[in-house]
Amino acid sequence: MDLIQIAKETLQIEIEALEKMTERLDQNFLDAVSLILNTKGKLIITGVGKSGLVGAKIAATFASTGTSSFFLHPTEALHGDLGMIGKEDTLLAISSSGESEELTKILPHIKRFEIPLIGLTGNKDSSLGRYADVWLNISVEKEACPLNTAPTASTTLTMALGDALAVALMKERGFEKEDFASFHPGGSLGKRLFIKIKDLMRTEDLPIIDEQTPLKEAIVVMSEGKLGNVLIINDQKKLTALLSDGDLRRALMQESFSMDEPAFTYATKAPKCYHNTELLASEALEIIENDRIQLLPITTEEKKIIGVLHIHDLVNAGIKSK
């Protein structure tokens, strides 16, 4: 058989399983959302084999979207990790058959703790189905596996149901992108929403000269500073100009060019600068991109230099403009 056709049939079987799941969503789903929403402790996910792998992913999704959650393997639970379960927690157990041996062994202990149990199983009359306070039906007519044995359609459906629960809880909690970013500070959204100018600006060994410094000396300072720019200050230590490598190239085209002239002569006067170090780095990048500059001097309100922000530092930090 054509492998492309096999792939299409596999996907179609899983699509149909998801479609049937959407048709049978009922009050039980709402009850599960309510149980989790009212959980004062943690949501603990458990399962064995492929169900366990899916459960670990579901736990990670919950944890990153505002629901405190972790995965607990049933075997580890039987050997001491039951102590990780508290009286204010809720357990979500996954087993297609509802009879996974390792899982069913911990169910009586879960009931002893008198904590809510949400059972994801395809068999309501199974051990898990009977113990569950809320049953979510994850049965499928058939697996995509040609032997109808390897968990395929059932694991896809279970993972999607976990996503549905997580998204519903996000909506109920009013979980916004700022909340998501706070759980993902290393991601692009977290960087865009939390990293500020003060976190990235350079404050030491800045290439600063005064207005009387000859151009030939300014070039040496520019090379040593490795920023492609030189900051120029007046007698009051206030920023008055900025000499960039672009300014230097333009100066070379002038007939009156002289290396002995003050660098101030060829510099950009009153350059763009910023003084609010609490400004988001992503917003600073917008300023740099819009003004087509490489270096943004950071100053006090009196124009005294406290640091610089280079476009390369922003790019290397993974900052992106909005």
TrEMBL record:
Residues 32-175 form the SIS domain. Keywords: CBS domain, Coiled coil, Isomerase, Metal-binding, Repeat, Zinc. It holds the Pfam family SIS. The record marks K50, E102, E143, H184 as: Catalytically relevant. CDD domains: CBS_pair_SIS_assoc, SIS_Kpsf. One of its GO terms (biological process) is carbohydrate metabolic process. GO terms for molecular function: arabinose-5-phosphate isomerase activity; carbohydrate derivative binding; metal ion binding. Zn(2+) binds at H73. This is KpsF/GutQ family sugar-phosphate isomerase. It comes from Sulfurovum indicum.
